[in-house]
Write a structure and sequence with these properties.
Structural class: alpha+beta
Number of domains: 1
Radius of gyration: 33 Å
Strand content: 25-35%
Helix content: 40-55%
Largest sheet: 4 strands, antiparallel
Length: 143
Amino acid sequence: MRADAARRRRARAAGFSLLEVVVALALLGLILAVLGDSLRTGLGSAARAAAIEPPLAVAEAKLAAVGVTEPLIAGTTSGADARGIAWRLEVDAFHDDDFDGPSSDAPGVPKLFRVRVTVTWNQGGAARSLSLESLRLGSVTPP
């Protein structure tokens, strides 16, 4: 009889109680909810980053072409590519009022130009844009 009672106590102590199972399932549900939200946020960020790559490539290409395949002269040009990415290129003379060296209008001193490329495109029904800006040295004014 004593052996039967000991066996029954061990059998009851060997399993999990209903309360322990419910608590474990609740914690598992919370952890999965947090992981799912993090995954959704990460995938959304990756999609937005992938969508900005083509417009950024257009802007970088236009900025790199100025002074190489396109003349470095003050003015504005614009256009669009086949994907519907519109671009606007602005080149203007740059003057730094804090610079105390020779003026860029002086003979023998290269001119400094500010080059700005702005691209616009539609993403998810909303208009998006980005701008890149650089300073470029122009030709030297002959003495």
